[in-house]
Amino acid sequence: MLAPRPLIQDIARQIRAHLRSLIAFHLFFTLLASAVWVPLSANTLSGLLHRIGRPVLSNGQILDVALSPWGLIWLLAAVGLSFLVIFLQQAGMMLVVSSPAGNRYRVAMGSLWDVLRRFPALVTLTFLQVGSHLLLAAPFAIGLAHLYHAMLGDIEPYILIHLKPPVLWDFVAIATPILLVLVLLSAALYFRWFLALPSMMLEGLKPIAALERSRELTQGRRFRMALLVVGIALLVIAIPIVFTLGFNALGSALLGQLPERNSVLVPAMLAYLALYIVTTIALTFLGIAANSMLVITLYHRAIGRVAVFRSAAIPQRSGVIAWGAEILLLVFALGQAGWILHGFEINDHVTITAHRGSSLVAPENTLAAMNQAIVDGADYLELDVRLSGDGEVVVSHDNNLSRLTGVDRNISDMTLEEIEQVDVGSYFGDAFVGERIPTFQQILDNAKHRIGLYVELKPTPGTAEQLARQVLAQLKASRMTDHAVIASLSPGVIEMVKGLDDDMRTTLFLQFVLPGALNTTDADIIGLRHTQATPSLLRTIHDSGRGVAVWTVNDIGDMSRYLDMGVDNIITDRPEALTRILEERRGMSDGELLLVKLRNWLRS
């Protein structure tokens, strides 16, 4: 029953036999889901932010809101609705392949109609399945959260990531078997109810009866089913990756042979991008269809026959609607290709910011790293400032000195005189023995007329206002306010800085940007973790009148991609590499630049 090769052959046969009907249903459903689901999720989240009355941007704030009553309600609803969309699409495709042969558009529309007709039952089944998994996971999540708080709660996340202290491995050793038990229990529950959806749709069962029917059909077969499902899922995931790599290599080679005339190159790229988008959509469809066919094929084998579905009602003019959907797909692909190509500006403008100085060749946040950043062509120096125990502004990312010096002391507990005795260069190499933690004033004196400053405030609890006031006062006294940006991970700190000096340029560093969240901050620039940057997000931020900085970008390929996305500032530990890329691009022809930008877009 569960031999892999015949199963894959059956799935492929069903997709071939019902291909046009499946495509038509996929298009109908995608248009309907896009019209309802996307606006619904965005509007409800914006409503949540408005009701809470606070920004939800940084890691800590997202966690706080997610654990609030309203946040939990929205999160659970979002998870449930996401799975409901998947269930609805799977249910429709199962009905398509179980329908008697006929007009493909009428079959597709009839299946969509019956999915909508059985919408309450599908909602109930989704609620039962997703809710059961969440209830199963809840005690494990609570237990792991308490364990994390008890073992790691007092340690800065940055220290955990970079130093990996022994207590972190103790936590991993305890948490791993707990997570493994959760995964095994969740998998057992998932495959117990794996055939509930086809049982409900094709046998007319009510949700609870469908779950019981699935339990009977999967009895004694769940382990083999799990191996098949995971194996086919990995295959489906691998196909688009291989396609993208092949398409990139072949397409770039072919386009590289074209004459470097925009009258030839631009139309060729437009056709190439449109083909890529259409093919990507097709592969996405095949992945969804293969998953649905896997479920229905296993169901047919479990019951020992092929179930037949007859639609209760089929809307009129199905063909007209289907042709309209297919035309819209082509228009969408061409429009997307044109929009992408239009975004390939020939001239690249970006500000180079050295992250804690040139911190790959000199110790971070030191005068040595700063001077190297100036040599490497950086426009700005990014540095972290905090208060010493006696109220002086000093430059250090960590409050605790153990990561760089091995000394387990906090800067907030030390006087400036004690801090100035600390060697933060020896760990980096013999050439930097004796390098000290600089004061903010030393950085200001060294930066004047040489480099701009990106000053990230790192207050300890209760010192944010004092730190902000002193930094602003020192910038003003040194006449550096026009050549500096104040940054923070905290929207509250940015709001405080704006309250003290509304003309001061500010950057809010974010881990995530949620719909509606930009309306909650007065920051002039949004700093994104570079893995979160996308063309659509950049467009949203730019449309709000703000600049975009990405951090921390050290890979040359990533630097090139973000240049092409149109970011305003790249924060990097390797300013010399970014300077070199910009110089190389200035020496390229328009045709060469277009090809570089196309390859970068494909990699993104």
Automatic annotation (TrEMBL):
Q: Specify whether RNA-binding is a keyword of the entry.
A: no
Keyword Glycosyltransferase in annotation:
no
* Domain of life the protein comes from: Bacteria
What keywords does the record list, in alphabetical order?
A: Membrane, Transmembrane, Transmembrane helix
Q: Name one GO biological process term.
A: lipid metabolic process
The regions listed as transmembrane in this protein's record are 21-40, 72-98, 119-148, 168-191, 225-250, 270-299, 320-341
Task: Kindly give the InterPro entries that the UniProt entry links to this protein.
Answer: GlyceroP-diester-Pdiesterase_M, GP_PDE_dom, PLC-like_Pdiesterase_TIM-brl
Q: Name one GO molecular function term.
A: phosphoric diester hydrolase activity
Q: What is this protein called?
A: GP-PDE domain-containing protein
User: What is the scientific name of the source organism?
Assistant: Salinicola socius
